[in-house]
């Protein structure tokens, strides 16, 4: 799905579950949660990436979304040796973005 398709879906009254993931301090990527899987949102022919959290949230707000999930995974488990290799440590927030619209 592309950013334009998300906008069209929202205008038609559809629902889409969107997450913004902090990949790096200067890379924020948008994903759609679909059937329990994360699917990257594209912009043209590549993954939609933004240089800041604000830039990603603003782009989504301008498409008509009111709220998204923000996810920041931690490397804590890898650094100290978590008990389970499948144990994820992450910050997950529900972020209201309607106020960011132009």
Tags for this entry?
102 residues, alpha+beta, 6-stranded mixed β-sheet, two-stranded antiparallel sheet, 3 helices, 24% helix
Estimated share of beta-strand residues? 35-45%
Number of domains: 1
| Main structural class | alpha+beta
**Unreliable residue stretches:** none
Mean pLDDT: 85
The strand count comes to: 8
Could you tell me the radius of gyration in angstroms? Answer: 15 Å
Helix residue percentage: 10-25%
| Tally of helical segments | 3
Main sheet specs: 6 strands, mixed
Instruction: Provide the succession of SSEs.
Output: HEEEEEEHEHE
Report, as a whole number of angstroms, the end-to-end distance: 23 Å
Q: Which descriptor suits the 3D outline?
A: globular
Structure description:
The protein is an alpha+beta fold. The chain has one domain (3-100). Helix content is 24%, strand content 38%. It has helices at residues 3-11, 53-62, 76-80; strands spanning 18-24, 27-34, 37-40, 42-43, 46-47, 49-50, 67-73, 90-96. The strands form two sheets. Strands 1, 2, 3, 6, 7 and 8 form a six-stranded mixed sheet that branches. A hairpin with a 2-residue loop joins strand 1 and strand 2 (27-34). The longest helix is centred in the middle third of the chain and has 10 residues, at 53-62. The model has no long low-confidence stretch (mean pLDDT 85).
């Amino acid at each position: 799905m592309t950013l334009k398709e998300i906008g069209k879906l929202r205008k038609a009254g559809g629902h889409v579950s969107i997450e913004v993931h902090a990949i790096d301090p200067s890379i924020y990527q948008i994903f759609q949660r679909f059937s329990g899987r994360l699917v990257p949102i594209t912009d043209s022919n590549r993954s939609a990436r933004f240089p800041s959290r604000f830039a990603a949230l603003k782009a989504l707000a301008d498409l008509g979304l009111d709220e998204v999930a923000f996810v920041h995974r931690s490397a804590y488990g890898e650094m100290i040796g978590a008990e389970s290799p499948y144990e994820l440590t992450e910050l997950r927030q529900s972020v209201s973005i309607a106020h960011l619209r132009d």
